[in-house]
Specification:
Strand content: 5-15%
Helix content: 40-55%
Radius of gyration: 17 Å
Largest sheet: 6 strands, parallel
Shape: globular
Number of helices: 9
Order of helices and strands: EHHHHHEHEHEHEEH
Structural class: alpha/beta
Distance between the termini: 7 Å
Number of strands: 6
Strand order of the largest sheet: 3-2-1-4-5-6
C-alpha cells in the first residue's frame, strides 16, 4: 500500500449501517410531538450533526415551551437504538470494505457524531467491533461535525497523520469535517441525493461501499 494512505476512518450512520432513516423518523416523531411540523426534507438538513446540535438547531428556528435539550435528545437516541436493535442491517459492501482494509494493511477507525450508546448498539448488532482500532465520538467534544476535532482525535488514536487518512462519509457536514482535518475523502451519498452539486467537495464519490475495495487498491498502486 502507498505510504500516502495508512488508515481508513469510517463515519457510522449511513456508512456502516442504514440508520439515517431511523434517525430521520425518530427526529420527526420526537420534534413534531413538541408542536413542530418538520418534513423529511427539512430533517435531512441536519444529517451529520450531533443530536444535541440537531435539537438546538430546530429550537432556535421554532421554539417550543418547556425546552430541555437533554430530554429531547435522549428520546431521539432511545428511539434510534430500538430501531437499530430490531431492524439494523449493514450497508451494501461494508463487510467487504472492512476486510479489504485489513488485507491492505490499513488501520481502521470510526469517527462519528453519534453517542457511545449508539456506537455500541451498531457494533454489537453488526458484530463488526473487532475491525476497529479506534472509536471516536463527538459526543463530549465542544463541537461536533462539521468541526474536524473528532476526525483529528481518531487519527491521533490510530497514530497516523491526518493527511495519511481517508475518511468515508455520507453527509456534507462530515465531509467538511474531514476536509478541514486535511484528510482525503470519499462520499457515499444516499441515492436520492447523489446528483446534488455539494458532493463536489469530496475527493472521490462512490455509489456504495462495495466499490471501496477497488478504490483503495488503486490508491495503493
Amino acid at each position: 500500500m502507498s505510504t500516502q494512505i495508512k488508515a481508513v476512518i469510517f463515519d457510522m450512520d449511513g456508512i456502516l449501517i442504514d440508520s439515517e432513516p431511523a434517525w430521520q423518523l425518530a427526529e420527526q416523531t420526537v420534534l413534531n410531538s413538541f408542536g413542530l411540523n418538520l418534513t423529511l426534507e427539512e430533517v435531512e438538513q441536519t444529517t451529520g450533526l450531533r443530536i444535541d446540535q440537531v435539537v438546538s438547531y430546530w429550537y432556535q428556528r421554532f421554539p417550543w415551551p418547556h425546552y430541555d435539550n437533554t430530554v429531547a435528545a435522549n428520546k431521539i437516541v432511545n428511539e434510534v437504538i430500538a430501531q437499530i436493535n430490531t431492524k439494523g442491517e449493514p450497508m451494501l459492501g461494508v463487510i467487504d470494505s472492512l476486510e479489504a482494509c485489513k488485507r491492505l494493511g490499513l488501520k481502521i477507525g470510526l469517527a462519528t457524531s453519534s453517542s457511545s450508546r449508539i456506537i455500541k448498539a451498531v457494533l454489537d448488532k453488526l458484530a463488526i467491533g473487532h475491525y476497529f482500532e479506534a472509536l471516536e465520538s463527538a459526543e463530549n467534544l465542544a463541537y461536533g461535525k462539521p468541526h474536524p476535532e473528532v476526525y483529528l482525535n481518531c487519527a491521533s488514536a490510530l497514530g497516523i497523520a491526518p493527511s495519511q487518512c481517508i475518511a468515508i462519509e455520507d453527509s456534507f457536514n462530515g465531509l467538511i469535517a474531514a476536509r478541514a482535518a486535511t484528510m482525503q475523502t470519499v462520499a457515499i451519498p444516499a441515492p436520492h441525493t447523489v446528483n446534488q452539486a455539494k458532493w463536489v467537495i469530496a475527493h472521490h464519490k462512490l455509489a456504495h461501499a462495495g466499490l471501496l475495495p477497488a478504490l483503495l487498491g488503486n490508491l495503493g498502486r
